[in-house]
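Entry 14. Structure prediction run on the chain below.
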Amino acid sequence: MTTLKLFDLTGKVAIVTGGGFHLGRAMATALGELGATVVIASRRQWLCEQVAEEMKKEGIDCIGLGCDVTDEKSVDALVDQVTKSYGRLDILVCNAGGSVTSTYIPDASIDEFTKSWEMNVKSIYMCAQAAARVMIPQGSGKIINIGSAHAKMTIDKKFYDGLDYLRSGPPYQISKGAVINMTKSLAAELGEYGITVNCLSPGQIPPPDTDPEFVERCRQKSALRRTGVADDLKGATALLASSAGDWITGHDLLVDGGWTIW
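Output returned:
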């Protein structure tokens, strides 16, 4: 098989949770540009539908659906709808998640910890399980979990001093660390069925409307001396979602501009 053919996703069906915004949209676009039919899903169904229409204009076969990844019935309904419509599910990108941390230990809210766990860990577990029910009979599938460079490190809380920015504190770091180990566990469970499970861990890739001072601090922390952009994830997504990554499973791929090498 030629190298170009290894990355060809023609005929494949992919779900990208949280695919209507920022990192999710970039990863969904990457899959679509390689030929996959892409389903983007999040609680903001209207946004997913809007983005899907925009992607169609770019020549990508895409639809937007609603899904709350913290609700098992909603997750199961999404996967059922996709498989009934397309007859298969080849790729799942578990991107939906986020940070709710704002308070500091010893006065941190346990509710913040619980929400982080539900958003970043429980959600992926439920999505992966729903996808596996389809992928196991197929004898193939690609599951990509989105971790974070913060899973490998903590960060000096002074980094956020004076900023109007929601910091990624212990609940976020702990939950993303769990995602990496869950990825290994899922890879061990599903490997015999021809399913690969990997984790893609971005470094700081601030959304466009982020506090400019925070963006500058991120730039200074990067070994490449630039700030990451959403499209920086497209190549890694292509690798892990395609036949080019068939011999990779249980792996955490850092895409962080050297953030964690210091």
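The longest strand covers residues 195-202.
Filed with the rest of this week's runs.
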